[in-house]
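chain below, 159 aa
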Amino acid sequence: MITVALMMLQLSAAPVQAAPAPEAEIAPVNRVLDAMHAAASRADGDAYFATFTADGRFIGTDATERWTLPEFRAYAMPYFSQGKGWTYRPVTRTVTIAPIACRCVAWFDEVLDNDAYGTTRGSGVLRLTEDGWKIEQYVLSFAVPNDKARAVVGVIKAD
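prediction:
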């Protein structure tokens, strides 16, 4: 995590404008994210958690859901072991490779479709490791249309 923080400091100090990364550079990041979603859909916990760094984090839709990888594994594996996964289908995704010398940090945001929740969002950071790209942080959120935001906030506040 310190390495990522130092890289982000380097990035913020760099006056370089990020040029779009070529598709060949982005493709491995997309494959990791697609593999993560596919593993969750088929309830394959081992494959799912293999897409994360050992110190990765999963931030869920509830304000209390900020899990370290071991915490999230403890939560999810009982579901996976029963064949219960979750299916989020990417609709669109934008990936950016950090414009720093190592080209070893990527961030993304994606619009997802889910049968239960409809349109959702995923966003996060990947780090290039000795084993390839791995998810450092994944954030799942609900996409609330602006014209419905006050009603949703009202329901949350009333809880």
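The mean pLDDT is 89. The helical segments are 2-13, 23-41, 45-50, 69-81, 149-158.
thats it, cya
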